[in-house]
Amino acid sequence: MAERDFGEVYGRLREIMAEHAGGLDVVADGPSGYRVNSRYVRKDGYVPMFGAVEIKKRYVSYHLMPIYMAPEGVLPISEPLRRRMQGKACFNFTRIDEGLFAELSDLTRRSMTVLGSSPFTG
């Protein structure tokens, strides 16, 4: 089975993450991955990831860590978007879905707003 070209899906999801993660640190930005870390540094030197977009073999993943760390602040999530979830903080897509991408954009914005200066914007 030939691998699918997820370039357009990745590009759109990367745009969503970049649009809302202003002020955070971009630590990876290439054709197969985009990662944004917080500016918070724990005493042991660990820097929490805010989010990432990655091309995988069968889908494009959109990781949004505030959902895992503070779900009460960023929920609710619609059932169609929830069906895209893998674990607690990752959404997988194989194609562009304007409605779900708009909701994901809003969820990412809410993640920044709700967390304020907590472990992500520090």
Question: What do these coordinates show?
Answer:
The chain is an alpha+beta fold and 122 residues long. Helix content is 37%, strand content 24%. It is built from five helices and six strands. A six-stranded antiparallel sheet has the order 1-2-3-4-6-5. A hairpin with a 3-residue loop joins strand 5 and strand 6 (90-93). Helix 1 (7-20) packs parallel to helix 5.
Percent in strands: 15-25%
| Class per helix and strand makeup | alpha+beta
Task: Kindly state the percentage of residues in helix.
Answer: 25-40%
Mean pLDDT: 86
The helix-strand sequence is: HEEEEHHHEEH
Number of helices: 5
State the end-to-end distance.
Answer: 45 Å
Report the biggest beta sheet as strand number plus sense, adding barrel if it closes.
6 strands, antiparallel
**Which strand order spans the largest sheet, edge to edge or round the barrel?**
1-2-3-4-6-5
Give the overall shape. Answer: globular
Write down the Rg. 14 Å
Which ranges are low-confidence, i.e. pLDDT below 50, for 5 or more consecutive residues? none
Number of strands: 6
